[in-house]
């Protein structure tokens, strides 16, 4: 494996070192954007993610049936610890900065765009659908609180195939061209996103380098310096955007990979993409950039009761949730207390009336329907009495009760956790 690394390392190293020399010369000049305002109908926090395979969450071996679990999916989890959250992933594997520019321009123009017009040679099987829905994506971006972007890795790596055939002067000129393309395209992308949604915070990631020290101890420090210079370029662009009234934050993921390239990527499989640990770290960096902190999720194993998070706090109770016919049931008073609702029990009708603001849910023991604001709603399994130790507790369907009271309910199968937010 070391021989494979060393064989392919020379052209990569040459490119990155030349890039390091040229990075300081590029500046960005954001254009003024037309002010637009989009009224939001609720308190949902919305994230739209754009970019390349890092946004997709790609790992080697994935196919159309695979469900990525990258940093974007983890951002949804992080958002749910804070409030109602929705995330839309518009990432395209193999995308370069020019392709992102073309795609975002189509979004601005509210027109469909073919896969080839986005970027020729894209292998992502979803790109045709994503391009055909570009017009609809404008509404999503207009309603976003945060827009994340990962881009640039494919621009630089595209030079590797031709590096060995070029003279030093030719290669340096090509690197300079790539850096200018990166700056011009990212500038256009940010300006276009800002024109659609002036209030959105745009979070742009820098680029980590995946080659480990053991591949070449002499070259490794130079690769780190090149990556550091690229980060400085992105930081400089963000600063310039800020001076022009566009909020761009940088997610500094590159420094997190330093010294951990072998444990955070699939480089041992000759693939530069992050592994699950790498994507988790990326999610932490993005989360800290967006919310100022990161909550380490707890994974509840199959033999454990599921987790319940209400407004960012876990319900801890001796009355554990129970799964019946794929429905989660909880002790009624636990959920009532957690959401700040009120409940009244009727011995006469064996029913509980739960109120929260102007919402009311009536749940009767043994009944296959509940009343939500007076309207019957069918349920597969009725509420029941559950013995816990020497106590009998009323257990009710969690999702039906919480959503009936107007709460957002989202179940995360990876964590086996239900997130409930007002």
From TrEMBL:
**What keywords does the record list, in alphabetical order?**
Signal
Recorded GO MF terms: phosphatidylcholine lysophospholipase activity
The chain positions of domain SGNH hydrolase-type esterase read 50-280
Supply the Gene3D superfamilies for this chain: Copper amine oxidase-like, N-terminal domain (3.30.457.10), SGNH hydrolase (3.40.50.1110)
Pfam families this protein is in?
Cu_amine_oxidN1 (PF07833), Lipase_GDSL_2 (PF13472)
Asked if Signal is a keyword of the record, the answer is: yes
Residue span, Copper amine oxidase-like N-terminal domain: 310-420
Q: Which SUPFAM superfamilies match?
A: Copper amine oxidase, domain N, SGNH hydrolase
Note the InterPro entries from the entry: Cu_amine_oxidase-like_N, Ester_Hydrolysis_Enzymes, Mao_N_sf, SGNH_hydro, SGNH_hydro_sf
For this UniProt entry, which residues form the secretion signal?
1-33
- This chain belongs to the protein called Lysophospholipase L1
């Amino acid at each position: 494996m070391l021989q494979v690394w060393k064989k392919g390392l020379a052209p990569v190293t040459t490119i990155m070192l030349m890039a390091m020399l040229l990075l300081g010369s590029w500046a960005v000049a954001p254009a003024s954007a037309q002010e637009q305002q989009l009224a939001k109908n609720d308190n949902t926090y919305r994230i739209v993610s754009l970019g390349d395979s890092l946004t997709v969450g790609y790992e080697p071996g994935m196919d159309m049936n695979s469900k990525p679990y990258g940093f974007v999916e983890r951002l949804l989890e992080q958002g749910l610890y804070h409030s109602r959250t929705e995330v839309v992933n518009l990432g395209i594997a193999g995308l370069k900065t020019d392709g992102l520019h073309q795609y975002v321009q189509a979004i601005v123009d509210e027109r469909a765009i073919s896969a080839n017009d986005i970027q020729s040679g894209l292998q992502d099987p979803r790109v045709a659908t994503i391009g055909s829905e570009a017009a609809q994506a404008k509404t999503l971006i207009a309603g976003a609180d945060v827009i994340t972007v990962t881009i640039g890795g494919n621009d630089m790596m595209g030079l590797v195939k031709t590096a060995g055939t070029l003279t030093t002067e030719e290669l340096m000129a090509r690197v300079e061209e790539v850096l200018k393309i990166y700056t011009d395209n990212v500038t256009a992308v940010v300006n276009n996103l800002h024109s659609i949604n002036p209030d959105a915070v745009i979070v742009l990631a820098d680029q980590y380098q995946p080659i480990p020290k053991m591949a070449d101890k002499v070259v490794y420090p130079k690769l780190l310096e090149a990556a550091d210079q690229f980060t400085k370029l992105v930081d400089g662009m963000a600063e310039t955007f800020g001076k022009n009234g566009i909020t761009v934050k940088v997610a500094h993921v590159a420094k997190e990979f330093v010294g951990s390239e072998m444990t955070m990527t699939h480089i041992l499989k000759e693939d530069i993409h992050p592994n699950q640990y790498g994507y988790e770290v990326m999610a932490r960096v993005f989360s800290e950039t967006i919310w100022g902190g990161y909550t380490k999720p707890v994974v509840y194993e199959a033999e454990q009761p599921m987790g319940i998070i209400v407004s960012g706090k876990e319900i801890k109770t001796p009355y554990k949730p129970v799964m019946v016919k794929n429905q989660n049931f909880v002790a009624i008073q636990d959920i009532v207390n957690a959401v700040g609702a009120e409940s009244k029990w009727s011995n006469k009708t064996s029913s509980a009336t739960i109120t929260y603001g102007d919402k009311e849910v009536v749940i009767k023991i043994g009944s296959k329907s509940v009343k939500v604001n007076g309207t019957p709603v069918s349920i597969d399994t009725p509420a029941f009495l559950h013995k816990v130790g020497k106590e009998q507790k009323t257990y009710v369907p969690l999702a039906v009760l919480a959503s009936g009271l107007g709460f957002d309910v989202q179940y995360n199968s990876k964590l086996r956790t239900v997130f409930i937010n007002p």
